[in-house]
Amino acid sequence: MTTTATNKVEIRRGLMGVYFDRTDSCFIDGTIGKLLYRGYDIHELAEKSTFEEVIYLLLNGKLPTRRELDGFDRQLRADRDIPDDVLDIINKVKDGHPMDVLRTAVSALSAYDPEVKDNSEAAIIRKGLRLTAKAPTIVAAHDRIRKGLKPVKPNANLNHAGNFLYMLFGKEPSEDEMHIMDVDFILHAEHGANASAFAARVAASTQTDLHSAVVAGIATLKGPAHGGAAEEVMKMAEEIGQPEKADGYARNILDHGGRVMGFGHRVYKAEDPRARHMRERSHTLGIAKGQPQWFEILTKLQEVMKPYQARGIFVNVDFFAGSVYYLMGIPEDIFISIFALGRIPGWTLNVAEQYRSNILIRPLTDYNGPMDLEYVPISQRR
Ligand code: SDX
Q: Atom 27 in ligand 1: which residue has the minimum CA distance?
C-alpha cells in the first residue's frame, strides 16, 4: 500500500484500501474470492438466474416473483429501439472505437429521454433500464454500419442476451450461445466501487443526471487496466499462438516489469470468483468450435503465473472472457463494449445509491510545490 505520512497528512494513492461510503448492493471479500449481489452469491446467480432477473434484483433489492419478472422483461424488450437521429450520429462516428461510439450515443440519447432532468430514484432506475435495453442496439448497429450493413432491428421474441447476438450477427443465436452471453452479462453486472462505478458516483455526487454519470462510467471502463483487459488477453493469446510458447512470452513480460493482462485485481487477492464461469465456457466452446488451442494457451499462462499467487495475483474476470467472445465470432474491439452492456445496471445502482444520501465527492491533494513566489513581469524575465 503506497502511503506517505508527512508531518501533515497521510496520502492513500489510488484511494487504495479507502472506504468512502456504505452499500447494501454488492459485497466483495477479496481475501477469499467471495462476491454477493444484494446478498446472493455470484455462483448461484451465474448458475441459476438470468440477466433480466439479476437486473431486477440489483435495482429493486429483491428477487422478483414470476409476475414481476414477466412485466419487467416486457418493459425491457419494449425499450430496445433507438431514435433514427441516434443511428445517424452512429453513422457519422462509425470509424471510432465501439466504446467511443457507445459513449457518444448514450450522450445523444439524453436529448430524447423525457425524464433526463428528473433525478428522483424512480426516474434514475427507469432511465437506467432504458439505457440497459438500448445499449446493445447501439453496439450492434454500429458494428453493422461500419461493415456497410443495415442495422438489424431488435427482436422482441429473444431475451436480452439473445437479442444482442441476433442484432450483431443478423441471425438467431443458438440456445448455448444465448446462455453464454446471459451468464457473461450476469458476471459483469455489478462490482462495488470499481473505477467506472466510482466515476459515475463522483458525477452523480455533483447532482448531474444519470446519462452523464453513465457516460463517465463508459469513459472510465474503456481503459485496459479496468475493462479493456479481455481484448488484451485475446491479443496476447493470438501472439503466443501455441501453448509451448506461453511460458517464454509471459516471462518476457514479467522480466521487463510488465503486467500479464487478465491477472491481478485491486481487491481480489484470491481467484476472482467470476473467472471460473468463463473458464468452463472457454474450454467447452473451444472444443466445440475445433479451436482448443486458446484455452490451452490460457491454461499454460495460468501455470506460469502460479508463483504470483503467493502475492495475491490470480486470474480475474477478464482472463477467459476474451477467448469466449472470440470463439463466438465477436470482433475483438467489441469485447470491452460487452462489459459495458453488462455493467449499466451496476452503474445505475451506484448512482441511485449516491443520490439516496448524496454528498459531493471531493478529496484533497497535499500541495508540495513552492509558496508565494514573486510575479516577475515578462519584460524582466531572463
Ligand atoms: C477489472 O475494481 C474492479 O472491481 C474491477 C473489475 C470490475 O468488475 O469492475 O473487477 C474489472 O477491472 C478486472 C481487472 C482487469 N485488468 C487487468 O487484467 C489488467 C492487468 N492487471 C493489472 O493492471 C493490475 O492487477 C490491476 C490494475 C488490475 C490492479 O492493480 P493494483 O491493485 O493497482 O496493483 P498494482 O498494479 O500496484 O500491482 C501490485 C503488484 C505489483 O508488483 P510490485 O510493483 O509491487 O512488485 O502486483 C503486480 C505489480 O507488478 N501485478 C502484476 C499484475 N498485476 C499486478 N504483475 C504481473 N501481471 C499482472 N497482471
A: 225
Atom of ligand 1 nearest to the CA of 257: 50
Q: Is 265 a catalytic residue?
A: yes
Query: Comparing 5-14, 51-60, 249-258, 268-277, which segment has the lowest mean pLDDT?
Result: 5-14
Neighbouring residues of 222: CB distance < 8 A, sequence distance ≥ 6: 97, 99, 100, 103, 228, 336
C-alpha cell at 137: 442496439
In the predicted model, what is the mean pLDDT of residues 295-315?
Answer: 96
pLDDT at 228: 86
Cell numbers given for 140? 450492434
Phi, psi of 86 (to 5 degrees): -70, -35
Asked if residue 224 has pLDDT above 90, the reply is no
The pLDDT value given to residue 6: 52
Q: Give CA torsion, residues 323, 168, 161, 346, to 10 deg.
A: 80
User: Measured from the CB, is residue 259 less than 6 Å from ligand 1?
Assistant: yes
Contact status, residue 222 vs residue 246, Cβ threshold 8 Å:
no
**pLDDT exceeds cutoff 90 at 1:** no
In whole angstroms, what is the distance from residue 348 CA to residue 213 CA?
A: 8
Lookup: cell for 346: 451496476
Which one from 79, 97, 226, 333 is the annotated catalytic residue? 226
Q: Write the pLDDT tens digit of every residue in 37-56.
A: 999 999 999 999 999 999 99
- Helix axis angle, 246-255 relative to 229-240, nearest 10°? 120
Can you tell me which residue has the cell 414481476? 68
- Is 318 part of the annotated catalytic residue set? yes
Domains of the chain by start residue, with CATH:
229-327 (1.10.230.10)
Q: How far is the CA of 56 from the centre of ligand 1 (A)?
A: 31
Q: Tell me the C-alpha distance between 276 and 299, whole Å.
A: 12
Ligand 1 center from residue 225 Cα (angstroms): 7
191 belongs to the catalytic site: no
Nearest CA to ligand 1 atom 20: 261
37 three-state secondary structure: strand
Alpha carbon of 232 to ligand 1 centroid (Å): 14
